[in-house]
Design goal:
Layout (H helix, E strand, L loop, with lengths): L1 H10 L2 E5 L8 H11 L3 E5 L5 E2 L2 E2 L9 H4 L4 E4 L6 H11 L3 E4 L6 H9 L3 E3 L4 H9 L1
Parallel strand pairs: 1-2, 1-5, 5-6, 6-7
Antiparallel strand pairs: 3-4
Helix pairs in contact: 1-6, 4-5
Length: 136
């Protein structure tokens, strides 16, 4: 599994963070900030927010402008496992390269659909923890 994580983190720099929070004590917030601090571009996705870190926040992957959709390589998911399938559908539709389900999040049906569509998939792992372990 580590090979997949390393490949994703070395190959792709543009991350949509689905379920991001503006609250600084929430994992989605500090994970996104960590990734930004390490050279990744973040595209916040949360229908209840206008912006996070001064960046426009989008209601969904499909609500992003097309030129932004084309940039998304990793879809980092901070949502309940039951909420993952429609996010995977949108990730496939916009041409994302990888699905990354955060620690505690796994949905094998959605993961398999993503794999069949050619996306790389990581489940139940924190992208920031994996980055820190692989590159520090």
């Amino acid at each position: 599994m580590e090979k997949t994580e390393k490949h994703i983190l070395e190959s792709f720099r543009h991350i949509a963070v689905v379920g991001i929070s503006a609250k600084t004590d929430r994992p989605s917030n500090f994970v996104a900030l960590y990734m930004m601090e390490h050279g990744y571009s973040i595209y916040p996705v949360n229908p209840g927010l206008k912006e996070v870190f001064g960046l426009a926040c989008h209601a969904s992957l499909l609500s992003m402008p097309e030129e932004v959709q084309k940039k998304i390589e990793i879809v980092n998911i901070f949502r309940k496992p039951a909420d993952v399938p429609p996010i995977v559908d949108e990730a496939i539709e916009i041409g994302a390269k990888a699905i990354w389900m955060q620690l505690g999040i796994a949905n094998e049906t959605a993961a398999e659909k993503a794999r069949r569509a050619g996306l790389l998939v990581v489940e139940n792992r924190c992208i920031a923890v994996e980055h820190r372990q692989l590159f520090r």
